[in-house]
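Input.
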Amino acid sequence: MISVVLALCAAISNAVASNLQRMAARTVPESKAFRPALILDLIRSPIWLGGIVALMAGFGFQAAALSTGPLALVQPVLATELPFTMVFLSLIFRMRLEGRIWLAVVTMTVGLAVFLLSAAPSAGHEPPGTKVWILAAIVTVGVMLGLCLLARLIEGDGRAVLLGVATGIGFAFTAALMKQSTTILEEGLVVLAASWQPYAMVVAGLCSLFLLQNTLQSGTLVAAQPALTISDPVASILYGTMMFGEDVRTGPWIILEAIGIGAIFFGSFLLAKSPQVRAQLLADTRPKGQRG
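Output.
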C-alpha cells in the first residue's frame, strides 16, 4: 500500500512539472528544437526551474515507491499523472473543464483501478544480469531512435505523439535502472557507488528529460501527454515481467486487464479530442507576438 501512496505523490509532482515546463517550453522558438540552445533558453526561466524542482520531487517519490513495490505496480500508478495534469491545467489557466474531460479523468482512473486489481503485480525473484541489461538497452535505444527519426519527418501533434512515446519508453527504462539501483543501495552506499546502474540511470534520465522538452515544445499538451503517460507504464510492465521476473495474473484475468488498459486509452483519447483544452492551450501558451 505504501508503494501506491508514494507513486501517487510522484504522479502529482510530475503533473505539476508537466504544466510548468509546458508553459516555459512553448515560449521557445521552434527553430531551437533538438538543439542545446533549447535548454539554455529554458534554464533562464523561473517557471521552467520550478518545473524541474517538481520533477525532482517526483523522482524522489518514485524511487521510494520502487524500493517498496514492483515495477509493474508502481509505474502504472504513475498514469494518474494525466488526470492530475488536467486538474492542475484548469487551475493554472482558470478554466472550467467540460464534461468530456471529467468523463475522461474518471474513465482513466477506473481503468487503472481495474487493471491493477486484476493484474495484481507481484515482486520479481531476482534482478537481471548484465547480458539482459545490454540486450534491453540495445532494443530500447533502437526503438527510441526510430521514433525520433520518424518524428523529424512530420510536424505538429503527430511529432508530439511520437516523441511522447519515445520519452515514455526512456523514462520507463530509467525506472528499471532506478529499481535495480534501490536494490543495490540495500548493500550500502559503497557498493552502489561502485556499480554502473546508478550512473546509467542518470544518463538515461537526462536523455529522457531532454527528449521531454522537445516533446512539450513540438505540439499541444493534450497530444504529447497521453502518449507519454500511456507508453511509460506499458513499457514498464514489459521491463518488469521480462527483466525482473515480476508476475501478473494470466488466464481469465487477462480480459479484465485488457478492459482496464482499454479504459485508460479511451480516457486519453477523450482528452486528446477535447476542443476546450486544445483551444485554451493554444491561446494561453503561445509565445508573445504570435497571438491571433
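The longest helix spans residues 157-185.
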